[in-house]
Amino acid sequence: MSSESSDSDTELRTRVDQSSGYPPSHVRGRTRGHIVRGSRITGSQRPSDMGKDWKIEGSVQDITFSSIPGISNASNISENLSPFQVFHIFINNDIISHIKTETNRYATQQIAAQKRKGPISKKSVFSRWKPVTISDIERFLAIIVHMGFVRKPRLWDYWSTNPIYDSKFASSLQISRDRFFSMLAFLHLNNKDTYIPRGNPGHDPLYKLVDL
What we know:
212 residues, alpha+beta
C-alpha cells in the first residue's frame, strides 16, 4: 500500500471516529502487511486473512454477566399464542402507551421550537404532524418487524407500487409512507426536557432508554 493511500485511509478513519462521537479505534493488527484498526480494514483484504496476529493496545474491560440467561417470562409463551400475542409479552400495553406519550411530547416540543425560529413550511414534517395513538404505535412497530423479515433497498420501497418491490404489507396497515416517516422522525422514549447533559452530575448515558 502506498504512503498516499495509507494517509488517505487514516484521514477517513479519523473523520468517521469524530463524526460518530466515539474515540478513535484502539484495536490494531497486521494481516499480510495491512493494518487492521477496529472493524475497518485498510487495503484489499480477504475474510480468511482476518484474525491473524492481532494485538490489543490498552486494556479491555472484562464484564461479567451475573444474571440468568434465557427468556425470563418464557412460562407465559405457549404454542397456542399468535405471533402478536407473543410480541405483546415483551412489548406490552404499558410500553406502547409510554412510547405514544413520549413521541407526542417530543413532537410538541420540536414543533414549538421550530415555531420560535420562524414560520413553518406547510410541506414540512412539523406541519403534517398528527398526534399518534396506541394503534398507530402498534402498526408502526409491525412495519418495523416486517422490515426485518423483508429486506428492500430503501425505506420508501415498502410503499412502492413498482411490481419489483410491491409487497402491500405496510400500506395494508393504513400507515402511509409520509405518516411512517413522520412517526420515525419524532419517535421518542423519554422526556428530553429532563435530560442531564454529559459531564454534569446525574448524567445517565442510557437516559433515552432507561424508562423501558
